[in-house]
Amino acid sequence: MLSASIEGFLLGGGLIVAIGAQNAFLLRQGLLQEHVFVLCLLAATADAFLIVLGVAGIGTLVQANKQLLFYVTTGGAIFLATYALLALKRAFVPQALKPAGEAAGSLRKAVATLLAFTFLNPHVYLDTVVLLGSISGQYAGSSRVAFATGAVVASFAWFFGLGYGARWLAPLFARPLAWRVLDGLIAVIMAAIALSLWSRTIS
What is the pLDDT of residue 86? Predict the structure, then answer.
């Protein structure tokens, strides 16, 4: 059972550590120290929900529903392309970290953005639900539960580590140039993922 939980932890961690839209957004929010706990908890909980769905066998249904994947992929590409343009715009008008006491951004807007990054990205379903779900099929009973638990723990550890670890970079991002570089990278990442998703819809 221990090996199953370790494999789940390592595999789950490996899938979410890669730089992507959701991670880039959480990093930015962590640097701004805006709604960090709520967003980290939401991201980890959503990931855990998808992991459980995959382990429960829903992954095969998602993979077989080509129409659902098409709509999710198209919607995700449009959303990411739009966010890439917004990030590019911010890169040309950089900011410094907000001084203490300045009003934070809207929690509702931040939550909506995170949910869009999570559920409009078909990679989430293909990797978390389908891949983890299929690999968990080699286990049964308590070992399968241990595999899912390991993957969920990895998700919580990563998202909270990313959100709260970002504050260690705060001194660097007190300079507008650092924000220019970060938002430029975010724009490139979002645009690359959007193009990748769009190519899938026309292939």
Answer: 81
Task: Provide the residue type at 187 as one letter.
Answer: A
The values of phi and psi at residue 34, to 5°, are: -115, 115
Give the confidence band of 35 by pLDDT, cuts at 50, 70, 90. very high
Query: pTM here?
Result: 0.70
Query: With the CA atoms of 63, 46, 74 and 127 taken in that order, what torsion angle do they form, in degrees rounded to the nearest 10?
Result: -40
Give residue limits of the domains in the chain: 2-202
- Cα gap 175→178, rounded to integer Å: 6
Of the candidates 55, 34, 35, 32, the one whose C-alpha atom is nearest the C-alpha of residue 155 is: 55
The alpha helices in the chain, defined as continuous H runs, are 2-17, 21-32, 36-55, 58-64, 66-92, 107-119, 122-123, 132-136, 142-165, 176-202
SS3 for 53-67, per residue?
HHHCCHHHHHHHCHH
Q: Do the beta carbons of residue 189 and residue 20 sit within 8 Å?
A: yes
146: how many CB neighbours lie within 10 A of its CB? 21
Cα–Cα distance for residue pair 32/160, rounded to 1 Å: 15
179's tokens: 């924000």
Rounded Cα–Cα distance for residues 125 and 62 (Å): 7
- Count Cβ atoms within 10 A of the Cβ of residue 172 and give its class: 0-12 exposed, 13-18 middle, 19 or more buried: middle
